[in-house]
Amino acid sequence: MTDQSCSDANSHFQRPETQANRALQKEANLPLTGWQQEVSRGLEFGLEAAESISDRSIPTFSRGELPHFAGINTFLKAPYLEDVRKVGEYDVAIVGVPHDSGTTYRPGTRFGPQGIRRISALYTPYNFELGVDLREQITLCDVGDIFTIPANNEKSFDQISKGIAHIFSSGAFPIIMGGDHSIGFPTVRGICRHLGDKKVGIIHFDRHVDTQETDLDERMHTCPWFHATNIKNAPAKNLVQLGIGGWQVPRQGVKVCRERATNILTVTDITEMGLDAAVNFALERALDGTDCVYISFDIDCIDAGFVPGTGWPEPGGLLPREALSMLGKIVQKAPICGLEVVEVSPPYDISDITSLMATRVICDTMAHLVISGQLPRKEKPAYIHPEAQSELVEDWR
Ligand SMILES: [Mn+2]
Hints:
The protein is an alpha/beta fold. 33% of the residues lie in helices and 13% in strands.
């Protein structure tokens, strides 16, 4: 490492010990191998550019990150993995779950994966202050979407659990783009199928508790944690719910939280105790007796002013930087087994801002997994059991 942290040839000012100066140094240590491979592949598959193009790294047909407005909309322009049997060859698998039949008010989250993928084209794989370049440090694929059944939650849940179990058991880190929050039950069920006798804690960012048994006579997006915490691998005492509050929290769900003793912090709790204390609260409870942590990030945990494109917007939520700060600290300090980002509804969105927020949650999570050494995975985490358990919960009806 070249040490230029204290002086600069062109300035008589000392460089202060700031995050910005550390970031400048970190960038110097990142490789360019992934980028060079992308350029070579682009020139081979996309042909060398017309003679008038001076920059000879540019191909005729766009085949990589550039230009950002071109190309096929996978997440972050990651390779589309058509053959999902090969998903275990990647560190991270992005999957869409375009299911919004569990929605009780504003629908449209079936377009969430499309919306998130589209605006993710705006992002580079590099983050300045974190000093991470995902293209250089992990392998990422987009496996496309689960085939959900719009008229039937239960059949969709079966499809989702099967798909997530496949990705999770392969060893690829699953990142799930919803979809409404009803998918939280089948995603956790899919992971639990391969936990054997191990346990998972759930850290749930949301304005809503989502713990009632039924809503409108079905298992809707207000219900995932009632059913997920019926699974022996996902105890309710390890469910942490951050940002809950406001005028949309159903009383029947509150009763369940009280009876099962889930761990809730309101936005006021979080701001009064401070972000670090809130993170410690979450980790202590989610990790108590468990082997890994699953993060379920409902985009509506953030104040409605920042995320208009969602099913049940609620003012008074977390600021984006508060949510991202807590998320990053949690990811760095716990063995994370998966992430879902739910409730992005592009038809209600403005300027793609809600989808952009979801993209940020996903990219930040990957970066903090890299920083904490959880990615790339050198071997499959020990909590992944090779054999699938079939029946985790009794038939619901
Ligand atoms: Mn919610």
